[in-house]
Amino acid sequence: MSVRPDLHQLYVQACQNSGQPENPFIAHVLQEADKNDIIRWTKGITLKIAGNNHLVPVQRVTDDDLQVLASVLHNAVFVTGLDLRCNVLTDAGAKHVANFLQDNPALRYLNLMFNDIGTSGAELIARALHRNETLLHLRMTGNKIGNKGGMFFASMLQMNSTLEKLDLGDCDMGPQCLIAIATALTQNKSVKAINLSRPLLYSQEEETTVHVALMLKTNSSLVELHLGKHDMKNFGVERLCEALYKNSSLRYLDLSCNKITCDGVKFLGELLKQNQSLEILDLNANRIGDDGAVYLSEALASYNRTLRALSVVSSNISGKGLVALSDAMKTNTELSYIYIWGNKFDEATCMAFSELIQMGRLKPNCTDVEPYEVGGHVHLAELSHGLQKHYYWTPSCGAVMNQDANASLAIAAVSEY
């Protein structure tokens, strides 16, 4: 076995050589990594240098800090993941990231969410991925790369054939780059999951949704698709449903925080009667109403036996629709996860979901409500479970392995390190 490198000692030496003061948080993380022998030589480790870590004093990582760190990790092949979320990296730091991606043969997971990387930084990282053949998962969430920065990633998707999971949510992208990304995904065969949530759209024509739908007709590799906050209406949902009749690969569809009403959900209900691949459907914060919930429940009760998780949180549903969904769960044993908080609970709703939980049909960790009794009446309290629970954060103790409480269910071999 080769001699184990001492990352902390290498970091101290590199800081001295460059005249850069040590970042105590980086030093702490590297010291902890040096103790991790078993995992290092088997699966590899992820260095979690997140700027929102509250267990230890945090001095957020700067561009100069990252330059020194990258030099230390240059030959550390056992470091397969790097979590740099919530730091103060800028386009200058993105240059160090790009150089690292070009030279490092081992990195598979890179999290840069909520830094200060802009358009030019996005260009550097995207161009580095033209040649990189190891990175599987990249999170750019919350970096304001804009429409031009998104275009660089669209071009990258035409060249890169290894990246499996790409998160470009909250990046201020515009309609041009969304259309370009959708066009690139008609040919790209490696991407299994992509998040395009919260773009900046200025048109009511839903042309971006139309292009995504056209992509879904031909793409046979995409498993997970996030289209939250797209200002999507019933027309867009209808286009997506038309495409999904011909798609047998998509298993997770996120349409949260849009403007879908019961008419749009009717298209989804008809789709669920025939679709045999969709497993997770997120309709959180739409305008479904009771009629929309009934459309879903009819499809789930009598036809669909594939969907495993449904979120209708804050969707303007009252007792009639919620009871219909609970009744559907009595006949559909495949639907295991349902999230309903933020709707209009009446006594019938509380009794129905209390019964599902008490009889064991609905496990407490598979929903976001918990029954309790006051004065002989059953009520529902909120639990912190949900499909997006750990999208923006992970517990300080580390990533949650239990899929019931994670950001998305473990439905496919989409690499996460």
Describe the protein.
With 417 residues, the protein is of the alpha/beta class. Helix 6 (119-131) runs parallel beside helix 7 and helix 7 (146-159) packs parallel to helix 8. It is built from 14 helices and 13 strands. The strands form two sheets. An eleven-stranded parallel sheet has the order 1-2-3-4-5-6-7-8-9-10-11. Strands 12-13 form a two-stranded antiparallel sheet. The chain has a single domain (41-409), classed as Ribonuclease Inhibitor (Leucine-rich repeat, LRR (right-handed beta-alpha superhelix)), CATH 3.80.10.10. Strand 8 (252-254), helix 11 and strand 9 (280-282) form a beta-alpha-beta unit. The chain starts with 6 loop residues before the first helix and ends in a 35-residue tail after the last strand. The chain has helices at residues 7-18, 24-34, 37-40, 63-72, 91-103, 119-131, 146-159, 175-184, 207-218, 234-244, 262-274, 289-302, 319-331, 347-358; strands at residues 45-48, 79-83, 109-111, 137-139, 165-167, 193-195, 224-226, 252-254, 280-282, 309-311, 337-339, 369-374, 377-382. InterPro entries: Leu-rich_rpt (IPR001611), LRR-containing_regulator (IPR052201), LRR_dom_sf (IPR032675). This is LRC34 protein. Keywords: Repeat. Pfam families: LRR_6.
Which features would summarize this protein structure in a list?
417 residues; alpha/beta; Leucine-rich repeat, LRR (right-handed beta-alpha superhelix); eleven-stranded parallel β-sheet; two-stranded antiparallel ribbon; globular
